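Input chain follows. Return structure tokens only.
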Amino acid sequence: MALQPAPSALRTVEIVRFLAERPGEVFAVADLARRLGQSRATCQAVLLALEPSGWVRRGEGGYALGPGLIAVGAAAQRGAPLVALLRDATRALNGQTGREILGYLVSGDQLINVSRVGPVFPMSITSVEGQSFPFAPPNGLACAAWDETELEAWIARAPSIGSRGRARLRQAAAIVRTLGYSVMLDPVTRREFSFAVDGLSDGLRQLVASALAHDDLVRVDLEEVRAMRVSLLSAPVFNADGKVVALIGVIFGPEEYTRVPEMAEALLSSGRQLSTSLGAPDPALGEARPA
């Protein structure tokens, strides 16, 4: 009989990951247990075990992420040379574009921000270093699109979208493989992009049409989309095995929609250079690998 993970260890991971995704927020034990689907007694026992190491801290109103994890995170970064390369790449791309640049590592079913460089747009919600996001629709399509097995696993992490939604995400993945990057547009930028199509050259018109089509397909939560104030272009970073191990992204505001072709070209060049430095066999665009 194959060994199975210890339930207590799994619950510990759930708690630490949940708090890591919400740095600075405090949760009562009962609220934390409810959100994670754990019993209150089990959740309390895990928190009590984590508190002496400083992995969680108890304060007024409940528990939050603790400073004891800072040393753990620093050690993990020292053991991951890709982090340093990704930070160099984000700084260089920021210098080239002047935009906010994000670098993410792919870790299991999570995307972890390890680098953020550049200005922060007013009224926008930006990502901070150390913050993680679920590697699930709509996050991380630029990573999942290149391998059919990975793509299906990614789509399965959003079980509520239905068969039509899954088909639309597969179409979006096909566009990503053509463009080489993914697109998420805020409503104002999308509208301006649409108005600009007639005045563009044939080549740029095709790029804009693909971007608009892809953005429409990848949308999952309409309320979240309406609240967006900035747009994001994301490109993959491949390792020597041809697997996507990181994402690099460019954030821009509604008034900069005309710079999308320029920013996309710079983003693709950065992703390819980083992939080459990792020994990727072919960092250029390619079709998804079959399951």
